[in-house]
Amino acid sequence: MSRVKLYDTTLRDGAQGEGISYSVTDKMRIAQELDKLGVHFIEGGWPGSNPKDMEFYLKMSKKHLKNSQLVAFGSTRRPHSQASQDQNLKSLLKSQAKTITIFGKTWDLHIEEVLRTTLDENINMIKDTVSFLASRGLTVFYDAEHFFDAYRTNSQYALKCLFTAQEAGAKAVVLCDTNGGSLTSNILEVISRVRPQINIGLGIHCHNDAGLAVANSLAAVEAGADMVQGTINGYGERCGNADLIPIIANLKLKLNIDCIPDDRLKELTHVSHFVSEISNMKQRNDQPYTGVSAFAHKGGVHINAVMKTPRSYEHIVPALVGNRSRILVSELSGKTGILIRAKNLQLDLNKEDPKTKKILKLLQNLEHRGYHFEAAEASFELLIKKALKRYKSFFELQGFRVVVERHSNKKITSEAIIKLKVKGVKEHTAAEGDGPINALDNALRKALRDFYPTLSKMHLSDFKVRVLEEKAGTAAQVRVLIQSQDEQDSWSTIGVSENIIEASWQALVDSVEYKLLKDKVNV
Length: 523
Known about the structure:
A hairpin with a 4-residue loop joins strand 15 and strand 16 (490-497). By secondary structure, the chain is an alpha/beta fold. It has an eight-stranded parallel beta barrel with strand order 1-2-3-4-5-6-7-8, surrounded by seven helices. Helices cover 38% and strands 20% of the residues.
């Protein structure tokens, strides 16, 4: 097989993931990024289910997509009715999408106990719906819901549903592992049997409830499927859908199967982080291929080997997917980790340089106090530049005050008041927040936004606090780790103090200054 078509359903299935809610603008921005990536089909939603999805389709009908086709999603007509009178199908026509995906029942359990109709009527529903849309010149895909469960219990009927859609004019049938519980061996066996009997396109749609969605999707392709459905970052209901990010990388780099243009493969990391940002979801550090830890090395043996031969501990060249190798700086990596990090920052150091020894000693002292730089690479970059006097601060703190007040109605409010000197100008600002740290963050941004507008493009995505164990001669301290992200990257910073507000302030300042440094903003 030389080519597989990609079908993205982030904007529908992905939007069903817990904690995700897209606006129309969000959906349009994601669709445009997917178009740039080269995804063949973008399912934007179910226009018959809510006004927001219909608005999305109508607005997108005025946009020109260079590489992708917009797909509208809907269900077969209702039992014992006419397709031409079905409101759901009328909405699909109104959406102006030229490609329609219809899902229908395939499992007799669902037909008889959930839909409460007969097996024969379900066949009529598939036939009438597909033929109704196909007769109007639309490209129709049929999603066979719960197909693998259906095939296990009544294979002849499950196949009959596919044949009916094929004969009614569908251009592809998609086998759905809707409950996400199938094993890879079962996927291989079923598709190997089904593929020779289908004369049109054959797709696969997997959910991740057994943790096998990516593996099952790839196995389906190897067994003959020529369309893969999934979502960016695996977003979706319950345990999510098949993650298109590693699927694309594995198709291109492991199976030598074409699915997106070669020059777009390096955009995978950007797209993964972009969708995470728009979805307001924390980017997974350990996501294969595109996570910040995907090519991160900590142990001295690993670091030494990677320096000599990268492929000794890296299964691909990270740059192929837009990612990079990272050396985690800690007491385990010693001078080598510092030198590699300095090289990445275009700083000329060697093992015998007194500056290297100075940084190593500083690192060891800070880690003894509770700092943990392998989890705060951005703070370590700032640390190196400050130690080498290669850094100028973007602002000067003159003082802050945080007030937490409990009112008679039991409501708790937090307010932060901050005094800064920015580019020679004194700023005195106050802001409220959901808690003291959020108030402090809001006040800091408010004081800086007129001087550094680029800060509006970032936000804090994670906040962790740990009370450290007592060390000899010192009191217990608090370590705060903050993860921040913008549309391009995510980064982590750290603060340590006996006072949680002070530790948080340290991490907040590093986060903001790293963003400005990354964007090459002038002091």
